[in-house]
Amino acid sequence: MIARLSDFRFPDAAARLYPDTPDRPWVLEVGFGDGRFWPHFAATFPEAPNYLGVELSGVSLLKAHRRLRDAGLDNAILTKMPADVLVRSVIPHAGLDLIVVNFPDPWPKAGHTDHRLLRVPFFQLAASRLKPGGMILLTTDHDEYFEFACEQAEASGVMRVESTDPPAAALETKYALKWRDLGLGVNHARFIPTAHQPVPHGPTTPYPEDPTTVPHAVLTLPDTFNPQTFEKVTERNPGSRNADEGGAWTVILLDLYAGLRRDGWVVLAHVVEGELTQEVLIGITAREDGTHLVRLAKFGGPIITTGVKAAVGVVTRWLEGQDAVVKHHGY
Ligand SMILES: C[S@@+](CC[C@H](N)C(=O)[O-])C[C@H]1O[C@@H](n2cnc3c(N)ncnc32)[C@H](O)[C@@H]1O
């Protein structure tokens, strides 16, 4: 099954995601590519563990989905988003038994190591999300990234490193076969948490069922409001040190569209928060009492983050700049 970010809870629970098999171990694979690892690895268990796969590539997602469906792996969920977002916002504390990373992108160029997944912050996050006895398995052909990851795990203060042989299934992935054909060897390590300090999930919530709690504002537009052009608007916030108050965000209002069916407009906004980006629509709709409602639309399945609430604020402030008078802030 394929899940979108908006299909999850923040944090979620294995019992909700896998209602038929809630008591099985829970395995996360990061960057599953075309999905060859899981059918091989799952077959080494008497019953397939619950599986969550996260990938950035939509093409890979579809290939892997077909492969897992054909293998009859019903308790497998695939999702397309950055791994960091999934692990931080969706995975509960002490939720996972295993995190598998096979042949992660090595970002080999000088100055690009900040793009690597396996750095101190990810190890600390992973230690918080793994159960006692859980671990991360890394298999990679890239010697330099392997050493870097081992150093980062030690530096995290919450992981110990064991070098062992990779599971056979990790040698059957598309990249494993590619490196094998080139005659290259692989490195494998287990990263085992030595502490499970909780890392907060942040203030993310699903799109509310109750419309009154959707981020919004109520305002009066001047009679003269009839925009014929729109200049892009960008606002940035460097973020709070307190993760529960949300991190840095950038909001770009890209365009404004007039409704043809009823009195109103829609703003297209691009919201960036670390690895997470969302394109959201914010409606500006006439109400019976003559005021207008500025509200985040459900279209596109947005989740409510600090940056998405801020986007409603950016639209509201832009309208104030067009002489609107705000009656109520609800964001
Ligand atoms: C070198 S490929 C390896 C694919 C597969 N594991 C294999 O062994 O064949 C790395 C994969 O990780 C994915 N990826 C890179 N960064 C990611 C991230 N932050 N979150 C999720 N997937 C990511 C890429 O899209 C790519 O498919």
Automatic annotation (TrEMBL):
<keyword id="KW-0489">Methyltransferase</keyword>
<keyword id="KW-0949">S-adenosyl-L-methionine</keyword>
<dbReference type="InterPro" id="IPR003358">
    <property type="entry name" value="tRNA_(Gua-N-7)_MeTrfase_Trmb"/>
</dbReference>
<comment type="similarity">
    <text>Belongs to the class I-like SAM-binding methyltransferase superfamily. TrmB family.</text>
</comment>
<keyword id="KW-0819">tRNA processing</keyword>
<protein>
    <recommendedName>
        <fullName>tRNA (guanine-N(7)-)-methyltransferase</fullName>
        <ecNumber>2.1.1.33</ecNumber>
    </recommendedName>
</protein>
<dbReference type="Pfam" id="PF02390">
    <property type="entry name" value="Methyltransf_4"/>
</dbReference>
<feature type="binding site">
    <location>
        <position position="29"/>
    </location>
    <ligand>
        <name>S-adenosyl-L-methionine</name>
    </ligand>
</feature>
<feature type="binding site">
    <location>
        <position position="141"/>
    </location>
    <ligand>
        <name>substrate</name>
    </ligand>
</feature>
<dbReference type="InterPro" id="IPR055361">
    <property type="entry name" value="tRNA_methyltr_TrmB_bact"/>
</dbReference>
<keyword id="KW-0808">Transferase</keyword>
<comment type="function">
    <text>Catalyzes the formation of N(7)-methylguanine at position 46 (m7G46) in tRNA.</text>
</comment>
<feature type="binding site">
    <location>
        <position position="105"/>
    </location>
    <ligand>
        <name>S-adenosyl-L-methionine</name>
    </ligand>
</feature>
<feature type="binding site">
    <location>
        <position position="109"/>
    </location>
    <ligand>
        <name>substrate</name>
    </ligand>
</feature>
<dbReference type="InterPro" id="IPR029063">
    <property type="entry name" value="SAM-dependent_MTases_sf"/>
</dbReference>
<comment type="pathway">
    <text>tRNA modification; N(7)-methylguanine-tRNA biosynthesis.</text>
</comment>
<feature type="binding site">
    <location>
        <position position="55"/>
    </location>
    <ligand>
        <name>S-adenosyl-L-methionine</name>
    </ligand>
</feature>
<dbReference type="GO" id="GO:0008176">
    <property type="term" value="F:tRNA (guanine(46)-N7)-methyltransferase activity"/>
</dbReference>
<dbReference type="GO" id="GO:0043527">
    <property type="term" value="C:tRNA methyltransferase complex"/>
</dbReference>
